[in-house]
Amino acid sequence: MTFTYPAIFTKHEDNSYSVYFPDLEMCTAEGRTYEEASDNAREQERNWIELELDETGELPASTLPEDIHLEEGSEVHMMMCKIKFLPDSE
After folding, report:
1. Ramachandran angles phi, psi of 24, nearest 5°
2. 17 band by pLDDT with thresholds 50, 70 and 90
3. pLDDT category, 90, cuts 50, 70, 90?
4. Please, which residues have CB within 8 angstroms of residue 81's CB and are 6 or more apart in sequence?
5. CB half-sphere exposure, 17, CA atoms < 13 A
6. With 90 as the cut, is the pLDDT of residue 84 above it?
């Protein structure tokens, strides 16, 4: 399955980035470059979704990018991750 959530990227003075997902509680990442931050964010998003599905079986709705208030210096990117579900073996 494919899951898509908005991620807020903020560039810092040292050109590093921090990322947070407003819909995924406490799901954050960072990186020295945009590419590193993006890779780390995608991994954190996948881990968060897998854990939430395992624990509750439910996921939050994805906020539309135009509904997100951005601070100066931040931008929203829709982050997509694919998770392959394997059938339970009994």
Report:
1. -110, 100
2. very high
3. low
4. 2, 3, 4, 42, 45, 46, 49
5. 21
6. no
Contact 45, 53 (CB under 8 A): no
Q: What is the pLDDT of residues 23-70, one digit of tens each?
A: 999 999 999 999 999 999 999 999 999 999 999 989 999 999 999 999
**DSSP secondary structure, 8-36, as one string:** EEEE-TTS-EEEE-TTSTT-EEEESSHHH
Cβ neighbours, 10 Å, residue 41: 27
Please report, as a single letter, which amino acid is at residue 80.
M
- Residue entry with tokens 């210096």: 73
